[in-house]
Structure formats: structure tokens, C-alpha cells
Amino acid sequence: MSADILKAFERHPDLLEICGAPGRAVPQAGLTNRVYRLEAERGLFFLRLPRPENAGLIDRQAEARNLGLAAELGLALPPLYVHPGEGILVTGAVDVMDCAPEDFPSRLGDTLGRLHGSGAEFAGVLDPDDVYRAQRDFLASAAELRPEIAPLDQALRELANRPADAGAIRRVPVHGDLSPGNCLWTPDRLWLIDWEYSAMADPAWDLAYAILEHGFSEVQESAFLAAYKAKQPTSLVPAGDRLEAMKARCDAVSALWALEQVARGRDAGIFLPFARGRRDRALARVRVLI
């Protein structure tokens, strides 16, 4: 049993009330949190403890509200214990399939359509341009990383000047981080986890991010978007060029997120190649669009 779990149970008596005495804890994948599948006296649970180096980076109050709403929609595992102040979260554990089902693009599109069309009012706003500017502000003092960032700055300025990008956007509740690791496939359904970046946003953000992070082929992307469109009014479905532009913005934000990890002292051997891959993909997409 790890010391961080024992400490959490000591500091939060409600954990013992909910889970019973903790037993074996199996670490799960996660970049921003420490996540465990916890065998405890009263059952199996997922326990999330935040990494100390990421303290203050997530609006945990907004996350808790949005997670509760997503659980009511049947899209998220219902929270059993949430402590926004320390970022602790407990849900019941589920048995996850070894690999996603063959029709997962359609099923993910259907799930995302249900979320975007739900009418739920999430806390917070996710604007990719604002996120990028905040990331740039954080990295301003990292002089050694400026050559990695400069081409992205120029590309996003050019993208912002496109006439197709003008006009009001109707914001919807979004997950914000639809990577494969945040999609738990069980034999009968899909659960979305890790609602840290959930907010109200352009629906194109979730669509673009999911397509990129899952590495959809053209056929898979078509199936994903068709299932999504079946749940949506036409006004919510972004046009092709706008979706492509959002893909570039998603990659730019992902690239700077990885550079932030480097600036915080995490393993450059892991995060710098990731940043460069996302940056180069964004630049290639912008060249096609401009």
C-alpha cells in the first residue's frame, strides 16, 4: 500500500466510510494524476490523487460540478467522494475491455452527440485561443523553448485571419480531453472519465480532439461524425474547414502542454518529442488551410 493512499485515508475519514479498509492498489495510466484501482473492504474503486506538481492548474470546483452533471446524463462514472480542495476523487471501478470495440468511432460519436445536445450548463469556458495565450504566458520565461514555439505563434496568427473563422459560436458542454485513456469501454457501454478540462466550448473542440487523439482513419472519422450528426441539429455541426482549423488549434495546445511539462522539470525525453510531433502536425494542417 502506497504512502500517499494511506495519507489520503488518514486525512479524509469519509474515504474509510465509503471504501472500508484499503487493500491492494493497482496503479492506472495517467499523466496529470495518480490513479489506482483500489481493492478495499467494501468493494472495488477507482481512486484519483492529484500529482503535487500540478496543484492549482485545474479548477476542481468546476470539475466537480461538471462531473456530477455528466454522471446524471449517464456518461460518467458517478462520483462517490469528491474533495475539490485536494483534487481527490473516488468512483466505483468497472471491468474494462482490453481493446475498444470495432465500431468504437460510431459509439464515441453517439456519446459525444448526447453530451453536446444535452443542454447541460457546465461551469467554465474553454476557448482554445485563451488556453494557448495562457500557456504562452507561462512559457515566456523559458527562453530555451522559444524556438519550439515561434512557428506555432506565426501559424495561429495566420489561422485567426481566415474569414471562415469569423462569426459567433454556440457553446455546448464539452469533455475537453477525449484521449483514448479517458474512454473506458465495458462490454455494454462507454464511460468517459477525467473531466478536468470540461467546460462550455465550441463543439468542434471535442470533435477535433477526439479525431486526432484516437488517430481515426478517414473511414473512422466519417463514421464518428455521422453518428454525432444523428444526435445534433445541423447548426451545431461544424463545417469541414472549421473542423480542420480546430484540429490545428488542438495540436497547438497539446504541443504547448507538453512544453509546459518540460519547463516544470519533467522528462524532456518524453515530452519534447511529443510537443514537436503535435507542433509539426499543426503546422502542416495550417499550410493546407491558408
Automatic annotation (TrEMBL):
Pfam families reported in the protein's UniProt record: APH
Full protein name: Thiamine kinase
GO molecular function: kinase activity
Keyword terms: Kinase, Transferase
CDD domains reported for this sequence: ChoK-like
Domain Aminoglycoside phosphotransferase, residue spans: 28-229
Record carries keyword Magnesium: no
InterPro entries: Aminoglycoside_PTrfase, CcrZ_PhaseVar_Mediator, Kinase-like_dom_sf
Organism: Roseibium marinum
